[in-house]
Each structure stands twice: as C-alpha cells, then as structure tokens.
Write a structure and sequence with these properties.
This protein is mainly α. The chain has one domain (about 5-205). Helices cover about 65% and strands about 0% of the residues.
Length: about 210
C-alpha cells in the first residue's frame, strides 16, 4: 500500500460526512478522488523551477503543523487556508478541475468544493513532514511508517525498492519535489497511478504542466 493510501485511510470520513451533511459513502468517494487530485495538482505545479520552489516553501511552512498530532480532527482544519491552498494549486482552472474530480468520484461538484478546503491543509501538513522531517504518520494509525527527517529514506520509501537507481535529486542539486509527488501517486510499489491515471492526466493537462 502506498504512503498516500495510508493518509487516505487516516482521514476521519464519518466526521467530515457529518460536518458536510452528506452520507459516509458520499464523503468517502469525494475524499478518495479529491485527495490524490490535490497531490497531482501539486506535481503539475512542480514541473517548472518556479513552481517547485514555491511549493517547497509552502510545504516548509506547513511542516511544523500540529494538525496530524494525535489523529486528524477535521473540525480543527483551517478551511480558509485550505481554500487558498486549493486555489494556489489549481489557479483559474479550479472550476474545471472540480468538475473532473466530481465526475470521477461520482459526487456533485459542490461537494468537492467543500471537501477540498478541508483536505488541502491536511495534505500540506503531511507532505511537509514527509519532505522536511517529523512523524508524518497520523497517530491514530499506530505502526505506520512516518517521516524520519532523512531525505534518502524518503526517496527509498517512494521508490519502493532500495536497489533501484535514485533519480530524485535533479542535476543541479536540491530537492526534486516533482519526483517525490510522482512517487506518491504511482512511482513506487502500490502507487495510485493505475487507478487514477486518467484523472491525474486530465488535471495535468488542464494545469498545463504547472500553474505559474
């Protein structure tokens, strides 16, 4: 199972369903489609140097978040920050992306619009801890592997195979955010690329390889 699937498993679906006034099944389908789409959008933004630098800075700012400590409480999520994150990720194409995510999840676009601001800060906090260190595994799921502050270990985790050549550090040095996000979506064993390939490809096409 990919690390992104572990994050999906840790999301308090029933709490979010109650918060939004929808069924647990509707909430689950919306979350299952929206969360990987956020990561896919971030990967598209990281396709160019400016986007990657901006994303790296944002992840660093969220790395110290306490949102994951003691298990995720959806009621404590700053949805205003979440709405800003979603808009920064998808830009002027946010409406079109929302429509595609809703179609994939079999839910209404209105529900996706409500779910994205809840999920966005959670994703940023989790990715920030994965990239910059700290225990990224939500504590309500004991036994899962969290970040340990080692970039090499993170790369190995995303590659899914320590024997494969490490291609996550760009030629100029530094952190290859795009490759890390790609590994979460499908570059490593158990990734989500197969199931979500069409959706993620559509989102990448809408964003044009990065929203600047």
């Amino acid at each position: 199972m990919s690390e992104l699937n572990s994050l999906l498993d840790s999301i308090p679906i029933e709490q979010i369903a109650e918060q939004l006034g929808v069924s647990t099944d509707e909430a689950r389908r919306a979350i299952d489609a929206a969360l990987p789409s956020l990561v896919g959008g971030m990967q598209a933004n990281a396709a160019d140097a400016a986007g990657a630098a901006s994303l790296s800075s944002a992840l660093g700012a969220h790395a110290e978040s306490s949102l994951l400590d003691g298990g995720i409480d959806a009621a404590s999520v700053d949805t205003e920050d979440g709405a800003k994150i979603a808009h920064n990720v998808f830009g002027d194409n946010e409406g079109a992306v929302t429509e595609q995510v809703a179609l994939f999840g079999g839910v209404s676009p209105a529900l996706i619009q409500k779910v994205l601001p809840i999920l966005a800060p959670i994703v940023m906090a989790w990715l920030g801890k994965q990239v910059f260190g700290g225990d990224a595994a939500p504590q309500q799921k004991p036994g899962r592997r969290g970040g340990n502050g080692s970039l090499d270990d993170l790369k190995d985790m995303l590659d899914g195979n320590r024997n494969e050549p490490d291609r996550r550090e760009p030629a100029g040095g530094g952190l290859d955010i795009g490759s890390i996000l790609g590994g979460l979506l499908g570059g490593g064993k158990g990734g989500l690329g197969g199931r979500f390939g069409d959706l993620l490809g559509t989102i990448g096409g809408l964003l044009g390889g990065g929203r600047r």
